Amino acid sequence: MAINFVQIGKHIGEIRKRRGLSQQKLSEIIDKSPTYLSYIEGGLKCMSLDTFVSIANALQVSADELLKDNIENNIKVANHEFASLIADCSEYEKRVLLSMLKTAKTAMRENRHLLLTRRK
User: Fold this and answer.
1) In 3D, which of 5, 50, 9 has the Cα closest to residue 30?
2) pLDDT in tens, 23-47
3) 105 with 97: CB under 8 angstroms?
């Protein structure tokens, strides 16, 4: 299986933006040029393992979160992502999100037959 550096770069960029970091700031933290970081985020350059670990540490994420589209058994990644998503939520927000998730799950299962129907 080939590693999808485009997806890894995409995840790095998304997480960097969520953390409120510019490419300039992250590049300073990991001691790489902003241009090199831009290439990494665009999937145009393959990074060393040292650089990968530096980026994960700087973004305060696990390696599996950056690799999630490259890992076959990614249920742990999804669980971690769910936990991270609700970590800063109030009890009210957690209850609303849980209610929405239950409703969405029910709707998906009730309409699963539509996936099997041929489009005409």
Assistant:
1) 50
2) 999 999 999 999 999 999 999 999 9
3) no
Cβ contacts of 52 within 8 Å, gap of 6 or more = 8, 63, 66
pTM of the shown model:
0.63
| 3: its two tokens | 């590693």
As given in the structure block, the two tokens for residue 59 are 């973004």
What residues contact 50, with CB distance under 8 A and at least 6 apart?
A: none
Residue 72: partners with Cβ closer than 8 Å, 6 or more residues away: 1
* 41 contact partners, CB below 8 Å, separation of at least 6: 9, 10, 12, 13, 16, 23
Counting as low any pLDDT under 70, the low residues of the chain are 1, 71-77, 118-120
